[in-house]
Specification:
Blueprint lengths: L2 H14 L6 H8 L4 H19 L2 E5 L1 E4 L28 H11 L3 E4 L9 H14 L4 E4 L2 H10 L4 H10 L4 E2 L9 H7 L6 H13 L3 E8 L5 H18 L2 E8 L14 H14 L10 H4 L1 H7 L6 E4 L20 H10 L3 E4 L15
Parallel strand pairs: 1-8, 1-9, 2-3, 3-4, 5-6, 6-7
Helix pairs in contact: 1-2, 1-3, 2-10, 3-11, 6-7, 6-9, 13-14
Length: 365
């Protein structure tokens, strides 16, 4: 056995027992490239996951609402945004949004939109008050750090004040979008004008201190280096040590453009590897999602054996991933979610927005 194999074996064993990996140990796993080594990673991540959750896997009945795709941002990896005069541009109104909620009756609502003058902060606040008045128990997960920063600029105030006002209307937490890859090299190439990694982290830290739980994400498949993946994960782990405010981590593979057949996104094994790495390196994150809209239901089911404990939810209607070449359904049902989890060899449980399992008479185990 070579010294490299010994180091990898030690890191895998340590990670499989839910023990913290140091930087060198974590890098040994991030840099695994052969299918056989990546499958060893998967076995270690499964053992870790089984120690934490056994055969339980969760999902949520949720609704994603994107009020508009008009956005001032110009991120190269985004196929969702539109200019004002673009034929695909749209703006929903309050009546449409409230009808979607009334028809779907979700446990959780996920609200994010583009950066634009049409859906400004005061309009959002009015909508959120209305939603909370009509559906007091709904879990409201709203906006990215990018949107919080944009609202603060437009309102000539600070992100702290924006978050305070969201707390007043009983928003429960923030989404994790906009983190992308913390690498300045990657951001210079793909989204140079976007909120910096430092400011993304600062806004999440403010949210955590205000009692708002948030998601953490990482967008991969943009030509990032092993060191950049590792840095991203360790930066998130460090902030979680400090605040404990991240509810989950969601690895997000880049979705190629539908009209560019020469472009390809991460392969299935790449997606599974990222889930496994997250489970072993992010030891202080309770939940790792296998986000089926971007990796597909089949890969998400497999992801449960690579460390994921949650498949996100039914979503109602997902638009952002499907603006690219995502081949998953636009929405699904609780029955499909439960069958997907069973296909992966796990026991399905519906949950709420804080990952507490819901008691439901119709759950088939």
């Amino acid at each position: 056995m070579t010294e490299r194999d010994k180091n990898i074996g030690f890191a895998l064993k340590k990670g499989s027992l839910c023990k913290r990996l140091n930087r060198d140990e974590a890098f040994a796993l991030v840099s695994l490239s052969s299918p056989s080594d990546i499958h060893r990673l998967g076995k270690a991540a499964l053992k870790n996951r089984m120690l934490r959750y056994g055969r339980v896997a969760t999902y949520i009945e949720n609704l994603v609402v994107n009020p508009s795709n008009i956005c001032e941002g110009k991120c190269r990896f985004c196929h969702y945004r539109a200019e004002k005069k673009d034929p695909k541009a749209y703006i929903m109104d309050e009546k449409e949004i409230l009808k979607k909620i009334a028809d779907y009756q979700p446990v959780e609502m996920h609200l994010v939109g583009g950066l634009n003058e049409f859906w400004h902060f005061q309009r959002y606040l009015s909508l959120l008050r209305d939603i909370r008045d009509r559906w007091p128990s709904i879990h409201l997960k709203t906006f990215t750090a990018i949107e919080i920063n944009y609202f603060a600029k437009m309102e000539h105030t600070s992100p702290e004040e924006i978050l305070k006002k969201l707390k007043v209307v009983s928003v429960n937490g923030l989404t994790g979008g906009g983190a992308e890859m913390f690498s300045h090299r990657i951001r210079t190439a793909y989204c140079p004008d976007k909120l910096s990694p430092e400011n993304w982290l600062a806004i999440h830290k403010i949210a955590h201190k205000a009692g708002l739980m948030t998601n953490a994400t990482m967008l991969y498949g943009l030509g990032e280096k092993y060191e950049e993946i590792l840095d991203h994960l360790l930066i998130l782990r460090s902030l979680q040590d400090e605040t404990g405010g991240f509810s989950c981590f969601i690895p997000l593979p880049y979705q190629p453009a539908r009209d560019n057949e020469s472009e390809s996104g991460p392969a299935v094994l790449d997606n599974l590897k990222m889930i496994g790495l997250a489970r072993l390196i992010l030891d202080n994150f309770n939940h790792i999602k296998a986000y089926w809209p971007m990796i597909g239901l089949e890969t998400a089911a497999a992801g449960l054996s690579w460390g994921a404990d949650d498949l996100d939810g039914t979503l109602g209607e997902e638009k952002i991933a499907h603006a690219g070449r995502a081949n998953s359904p636009l929405k699904t049902t609780k029955e499909i979610m439960e069958d997907t989890i069973r296909t992966g060899g796990f026991i399905p449980y519906a949950r709420d927005g804080l990952f507490s399992v819901l008691k439901r008479k119709d759950l088939r185990i």
